Please model this.
Amino acid sequence: MRALSKKELSDDLRRLGLEKGDVVMVHTSLKKIGYVCGGAQTVIEALIEVVGPEGTIMMPTQSWKNLDPETGVHWDADESEWNKIRENWPAYDRNLTPTNTMGAVAEMFRKWPGSIRTNHPARSVCAWGKHAEYLTEEHTLSNIFGEGSPIAKLYELDAKVLLLGVGYDKNTSIHLADVRANYPGKHECIEHSAILENGVRVWKEYSTLFVDGEDFEKIGEAFEKAYKPAIGKIGEADARLMKQKDIVDFSVLWIEKNRR
Model:
């Protein structure tokens, strides 16, 4: 297996179409990229080198285990233990709480110097660069992916989305289309997360739009026939780079046509 340097990754990113000053939402699988000299650190450094200080990088840093066991996220615990989880799960701390299955790059990115993480206890994102403060300054419990959320602010900034070794099922931006589309099955759900209120840990109830992403791969397949995003290799990984507005606008139409 060949070893990949930061220069090789940077060159690959530029060939794909990532540019200085870009605002980009990044979803990564370090394993798919291959043997990177320096691992996650080098991937982040390559991204920063390409977009530069005038650019902005955002990644999902979700801690979705901080949800009620009834949602299925604690499948490895017996139902008899659910109340114990509700009573004892640690309150979200954006500086401390680790990510869940977001990958090694996102886990390192949340601690990267200058990066800012949002306050959502289960669906946080983290941003670095020129627009990081703007993107992360408001992420309320109920407004996870809607207007005014970090994902919607990316749309305002004409951002790009980079899928680096992952598929459309990881493309968080499609959740903005969930919010904007009208379809028969659209509905709210009740979530619970452990948070701090006035310094006290509480198990907080909140209402939000129900989303699951089961059809995101189908959306991605149809999108690529209509829009032809940039497709190439970053190291050994298959990568796709697209305008966020394109995937969101297309997804709204697809959802309204196909979802029940």
User: Anything to note?
Assistant: The longest helix spans residues 244-258. The chain is about 35% helix and 25% strand.
